[in-house]
Structures are given as structure tokens and as C-alpha cells.
TrEMBL record, chain A:
UniProt topology in membrane: Multi-pass membrane protein
Classification via InterPro entries: ABC_transp_permease, BCAA_transport_permease
Species the sequence originates in: OCS116 cluster bacterium
Keyword Metal-binding attributed: no
Membrane-spanning ranges: 6-28, 40-58, 64-84, 96-116, 136-160, 191-209, 221-250, 262-281
Gene Ontology annotations for the cellular component aspect, listed alphabetically: plasma membrane
Main location, first listed in the record: membrane
Subcellular location: Cell membrane
Keywords: Amino-acid transport, Cell membrane, Membrane, Transmembrane, Transmembrane helix, Transport
Protein name: Branched-chain amino acid ABC transporter permease
Record-level GO BP terms: amino acid transport
Source superkingdom: Bacteria
One Pfam entry name: BPD_transp_2
Automatic annotation (TrEMBL), chain B:
Entry GO CC: plasma membrane
PANTHER family: HIGH-AFFINITY BRANCHED-CHAIN AMINO ACID TRANSPORT SYSTEM PERMEASE, HIGH-AFFINITY BRANCHED-CHAIN AMINO ACID TRANSPORT SYSTEM PERMEASE PROTEIN LIVM
Protein name listed in UniProt: Branched-chain amino acid ABC transporter permease
Keyword terms of this UniProt record: Cell membrane, Membrane, Transmembrane, Transmembrane helix
Topology with respect to the bilayer: Multi-pass membrane protein
Cell compartment(s), UniProt: Cell membrane
Pfam family, one: BPD_transp_2
UniProt key word Cell membrane: yes
Principal location listed in the UniProt entry: membrane
InterPro entries (UniProt xref): ABC_transp_permease, LivM-like
Annotated GO MF terms: branched-chain amino acid transmembrane transporter activity
Residue stretches spanning the membrane: 20-39, 45-63, 70-89, 95-115, 122-148, 168-190, 224-247, 259-285, 305-325
CDD domains: TM_PBP1_LivM_like
Length: 291, 365
């Protein structure tokens, strides 16, 4: 049963990576920009939730705090697009990479000022509850994480593939000018996708905070989420989740069965191997670029 | 205003445009050489630090600024150069041989790393190099018998036959060593840029497809760029190790990689000057912050509070401001000011205005 225990905790961790990766992939799908600050976005979401919900701060009821957090994170995502990203539209990818990395620094700094640098965890109704199933003990938080992630991925997948707005987003990313000509309000669409990715980051943050403690450097797990997104192939939503699960499952098994010192290498080594042998990920959308 | 009417190719690729420019750079070099007699040892140390960062910046500039390959992993090459040099010294190799050798080793390793990296572009390359930079920490721990792992390594004073140079004992001599390295690297860099090799780098940056059409071998060019870039970075790493005196697996973290990339962006991508300007910002920002913190403390009347992470917060904000308002960096701004002065009163507003570009996907269905 030890094996299953490791598997479940790996899947739950992997779902969090997958959620952050979903944030990257969504923005990449719709604006062709990569948000290196997505992990810090998630950290901020977790802290906002703690600020609203924990009794040490505002102490609002759990449900109200969740709604408020998602609203705040959505607004923040929209503002970031409105104030920063919109101005660099069409610049080189290096500029956008550096802009979002710098944004991550600023977020970490601000979170440190507001909520301090010591680790904090979220007071939540699920804490300590367990689900026993055929001899395996599952924490309720883990179950919640898995359920929410799967639901969100399925929802976003259909949103991008089936709804008018989702298709408009994909069109806007493939050729901005042509999308303008076809009557798609490109700016508004991009603002919306950033708001949506803020909400996803908020959800990821809340789930992360129920599972463990958060401090301003938590956002660095965004790097593992990168590995997840790359393994899944940037631009594929189910791929992002799958990549997250791969990374999440590898971690506990590597630390269990591999010699110490090698285990933390595993996710990054896997990332490099995937990049070398299948540079565009498992669910590739990349083709040769034309002039 | 100076007008250059170029009549030959020789004139176009000259090191210095005219005697005036030559005079300016010559006086800058002379100033750098007499600097130890002007400022005290503390600021000389800071200046040495800035020069070392400038070498590292030049290394990354060649790859990112001139060949257009964004790397978030150059701290890995700093580490490699640093460890290569110090391990060589430990086995009794003298500075004159060990130092260039460290650069060559790093360059060769960089070239081999470039082979898989050739297939990646844009964000994929950035992510791959970042992963590499994270792995270096663990690799240093795993190779503890040579590298000292977590407990680190100490840098012996460097032995230049007749004199023992170390950063604390003889700061002036160490400054001169760094200065000579900086001048040699800068001259070499400028020379590469005016050669066909350097032009093919720029061609690859501006458009791979067009470069290929003009007969540039993309793979070879990128590999050469990686090799040279990593080599220069390796030299900077060796100097950094000597400067800090002691280093371990956490010295060259991924944060350094990010800082290096940010530095050349602030300085101005695609110019030698940019690496130096960026290094000045990076080198003096902590000093500037601690001075201004004390000043703010005096004004408010409270004690100067230490805010953890302040440096990176301010750094991030400066960077955002640059990307938004002056993507060409400090050098770009300086270039505009100089043009304004030279053309006075004929400068027009739209002179450096860039054409609005629209996003087109790299994923084609």
C-alpha cells in the first residue's frame, strides 16, 4: 500500500504543478507570451486567501474568502495585462520573458512586505479530515485538489475548443492583425485571458495553501510547473495537466528509490531529456516557422 | 556635428570611427589605469566587482545580444569556469596557463551543450538553460571530492611568478589583473563583431531564415556563439571565484543567471557598452540602496529598517521600467541623447520610432 500512498501524494502535488502549468499554457495559447511569474502569481493567490480567510487577518468565512480571492486575482491579472503586457505587445519574446521574471521579483517583494517572510498555512474546513478507501488513507485536501484540477482542465479544454470566445483567443494568438480584421477585439480578449489566468492562479494558490505552508519564495515551484508545461507541450491544456502529473509522481518515487542527491535532479533531468529528444513536448503544436 | 563619409570597406570596419573617438576611449583606459591612485581600497574593490560582472555580461551579450539566443543558465558556465580554474590551480597549474584553460574548457563544454540546444528556440531554450542552471547546484554537490560540495572551496592567492596577488592583501594588483582581462576580452569582442563571424551572429539574430538564405550556416554559427560566449563567461567565473575568495554550490545559483540576463537588458542588448553600463547598475545598486536606506531612515526619524528582498524588488521595478519605456537600455538612451546633441537643433521626434509590429504565431497548424 506504500506504493499507492506515494502515488496519491504524487498525483496531488502533480495537480498543483499542473494548475500552474495551465496558467502558462492558457496565456501562451492566447497571447504567445510566456508568463514566468505564474508561480509567483499562485503564491500571491495563496497569500490573498490567507489574508481574507485566516483568523489572524480578516477572518472571513471560507466561501466568501474564496470568492473574494478569485475576484482579486482576476482583477490583478487584468491589470497586469492592461498596464504592462499590452505595452510590449509585438516585442521580442526575450523582452516578455524578462518583464515577467521582473514582475515575479516585485510580487515576491510585495508579498514579503504585506505578509512577512515566515511560512503560513491556510485554516480550512478540510484540514485533518481523511478518506479511507480500500486500505489507502487519503487526506481530504488531496482529494479536493485532484477533483478541482480535473474539473478545471476539462472546463478550460472545452472553453478553448468549443466556445466562440475560446476560438477567438486562439485566432488572436496565431495572427493578431488578421484577428483584428476578422472583428475580434484582440485587446479585450487578451485582457480576459490574463484575468482568467489570474483566477486559475488563485485556485492553484488556495489548493496549495490547504496542502502546506506558503512563504514568498513558494512561487519558485513555478520552475517545476515549467517542466510540466514543456513535457506536455506548451499550448496543450490536457498536456499541461499530464506533464504536471508526471513531474508530481516522479518526485516522491525518486526520493524514495534513488540515492540521495540524485532525487531532486529527476524532474529537471526529465525536462532536459524531453527537450533534447522531443523538443516540442509530447503533445506538440510546433511546426517549422515560415518567413 | 561629425559627418563620416565612408569611401571604403576598410574604413567601415575600423575599430574607431575617427581620432576623436580613439582619444575618448584611450582616455577612458588611462583613467581606468590611474584609478587606484584616485579612489580608496573599498571603492576599488567595488570597481573590480563591476569589471568582473562586465566580463560576464560580455559573455552573455555575445549570445543573447548579438546572436539572439536568450539564456537563463549562464551562472552554470560561471560555475564551470570558476571550478575549472580553481581545480587546475589546486593541481599546481600556474595562473597564466590555468586561467585561459578554464575559459577554453568552459567554451568547449558550452559548445557540446549547444548541440541539443540548437533544436530549441525562444522560450524552450530559455527554459532548458534555466533547468541546466538549477542542475549545476546538485552536480557540484555530487562531485564533492573535486569541488568541495557544500563546504565549498577556498581561492588561493594567484601566483604571477614574482608576485602573489589576492583580493584582500593586494587589491590594487588584483584590480590590474582584472582590468587587463577586461581590456583583452573587450578588444577580442570588438574584433569578432567586425569580422564575418560577428556579422553572421547578427544575421542569425535578426532572421534565421534570411541568414540561411544568405549562406550562413545556422548550426555552426550558433555553436560558435555558444562556445565563445561560454568561454568568456568561464573567465568571468574564474575571476568571480578569486574575488569572493570562497564559494560553494550555492554561489552560482539560478538567481545569478537571471541577474546576468537582466543586467545586459538594463545596459542595452546588442552593444558592448551595454554590458558595462549594466555591470555598473548591478555593482552599485546594493551600495546605493544601503545609502538611500540610511538617508530615508534619517528623514523619517526612525532607524534604517532592513527590508528583506528590497534589492530584488527595486531591481525588478527598474527592469520593468526599462522594458516599458526604454527597451534599448541605458546605451540606447545615451545614443538618443548623443544624437540629439550632435544634430541640435535638427533632431526630430520620430527619429528612433520603431515600426509597430504585430504578433504572429510560431505554432502553425
Amino acid at each position: 500500500m506504500d506504493f499507492f500512498q506515494l502515488l496519491v501524494s504524487g498525483i496531488a502535488n502533480g495537480c498543483v504543478y499542473g494548475l500552474i502549468a495551465l496558467g502558462f499554457v492558457m496565456i501562451y495559447k492566447a497571447t504567445e507570451a510566456v508568463n514566468f511569474a505564474q508561480g509567483d502569481f499562485m503564491m500571491l493567490g495563496a497569500f490573498v486567501m490567507i489574508g481574507f480567510g485566516n483568523s489572524g487577518y480578516w477572518g472571513l468565512p471560507f466561501g466568501v474568502a474564496i470568492v473574494l480571492t478569485l475576484v482579486v486575482m482576476g482583477a490583478l491579472g487584468y491589470l497586469i495585462d492592461r498596464l504592462l503586457l499590452r505595452r510590449v505587445a509585438g516585442e521580442s519574446q526575450t523582452a516578455i520573458i524578462i518583464l515577467t521574471i521582473a514582475l515575479g521579483f516585485v510580487m515576491r517583494f510585495i508579498a514579503g512586505i504585506i505578509w512577512g517572510h515566515s511560512p503560513q498555512s491556510l485554516e480550512n474546513p478540510l484540514a485533518g479530515q481523511e478518506l479511507r478507501l480500500a486500505g489507502i488513507t487519503l487526506g481530504m485536501e488531496d482529494v479536493a485538489v485532484i477533483l478541482v484540477t480535473v474539473a478545471l482542465t476539462v472546463g478550460l479544454f472545452f472553453f478553448f475548443g468549443r466556445t466562440k470566445l475560446g476560438l477567438a483567443m486562439q485566432a488572436a494568438s496565431q495572427n493578431q492583425l488578421a484577428a483584428y480584421y476578422m472583428g475580434i477585439p484582440v485587446k479585450r480578449v487578451q485582457g480576459f485571458i490574463w484575468a482568467l489566468s489570474g483566477v486559475v492562479a488563485g485556485i492553484a494558490g488556495i489548493l496549495f495553501a490547504t496542502k502546506g505552508s506558503v512563504d514568498p519564495t513558494t512561487g519558485l515551484i513555478g520552475i517545476k510547473a515549467f517542466a510540466a508545461a514543456v513535457i506536455g507541450g506548451f499550448g496543450s491544456l490536457p498536456g499541461a495537466l499530464l506533464g504536471g502529473l508526471v513531474i508530481g509522481i516522479i518526485e516522491p518515487f525518486a526520493s524514495r528509490y534513488m540515492p540521495a542527491g540524485y532525487s531532486q535532479i529527476a524532474p529537471y533531468a526529465l525536462l532536459l531529456i524531453v527537450l533534447v529528444f522531443r523538443p516540442s513536448g509530447l503533445f506538440s503544436q510546433l511546426r517549422n516557422k515560415k518567413v | 556635428m561629425r559627418v563620416h563619409f565612408k569611401t571604403s570597406y576598410e574604413q567601415d570596419i575600423r575599430f574607431f570611427e575617427d581620432r576623436w573617438t580613439l582619444f575618448l576611449y584611450a582616455s577612458l583606459v588611462i583613467l581606468a589605469f590611474v584609478l587606484p591612485y584616485i579612489i580608496d581600497d573599498f571603492y576599488l574593490g567595488e570597481m573590480t566587482n563591476v569589471l568582473i560582472w562586465a566580463v560576464a555580461g560580455l559573455g552573455l551579450m555575445l549570445l543573447t545580444g548579438h546572436t539572439g539566443q536568450a539564456s537563463l543558465g549562464h551562472a552554470a558556465f560561471l560555475a564551470m569556469g570558476c571550478y575549472a580554474y580553481h581545480i587546475l590551480v589546486k593541481y599546481g597549474v600556474t595562473f597564466i596557463i590555468a586561467f585561459p584553460l578554464a575559459g577554453i574548457i568552459t567554451g568547449v563544454v558550452g559548445m557540446f551543450i549547444a548541440i541539443p540546444a540548437l533544436r530549441l528556440r525562444g522560450i524552450y531554450l530559455a527554459i532548458a538553460t534555466m533547468a541546466m542552471s538549477i542542475l549545476v547546484d546538485d552536480i557540484i554537490v555530487l562531485t564533492a571530492p573535486w569541488s568541495g560540495g557544500v563546504s565549498g572551496m577556498f581561492s588561493d592567492p594567484l601566483n604571477l611568478y614574482w608576485i602573489q596577488i589576492d583580493r584582500w592583501g593586494t587589491p590594487v594588483a588584483f584590480y590590474y589583473v582584472v582590468l587587463v582581462v577586461v581590456i583583452l576580452v573587450t578588444l577580442g569582442y570588438a574584433n569578432i563583431l567586425r569580422s564575418p563571424t560577428g556579422r553572421s551572429f547578427v544575421a542569425v539574430r535578426d532572421s534565421e531564415v534570411s541568414a540561411q538564405a544568405m549562406g550562413v550556416d545556422i548550426a555552426k554559427t550558433k555553436m560558435l556563439s555558444f562556445a565563445l560566449s561560454c568561454g568568456i563567461t568561464g573567465l568571468a567565473g574564474a575571476l568571480m571565484g578569486m574575488f569572493s575568495g570562497v564559494f560553494n554550490n550555492e554561489t552560482f545559483s539560478v538567481v545569478i543567471s537571471v541577474q546576468l540576463l537582466m543586467m545586459i537588458v538594463i545596459g542595452g542588448l546588442g552593444s558592448i557598452h551595454g554590458a558595462f553600463f549594466g555591470a555598473i547598475v548591478i555593482g552599485f545598486l546594493p551600495q546605493f540602496l544601503s545609502i538611500s536606506k540610511g538617508w530615508v531612515g534619517d528623514v523619517i526619524g526612525g532607524s534604517a529598517v532592513a527590508i528583506p528582498g528590497l534589492e530584488f524588488g527595486v531591481f525588478g521595478m527598474i527592469l520593468i521600467a526599462f522594458i516599458l519605456f526604454e527597451p534599448a537600455g541605458i546605451y540606447g538612451r545615451w545614443f538618443k541623447i548623443r544624437t540629439w546633441l550632435e544634430l541640435f537643433p535638427f533632431y526630430r521626434k520620430g527619429m528612433f520610432k520603431r515600426q509597430k509590429s504585430f504578433l504572429k504565431t510560431e505554432r502553425l497548424q
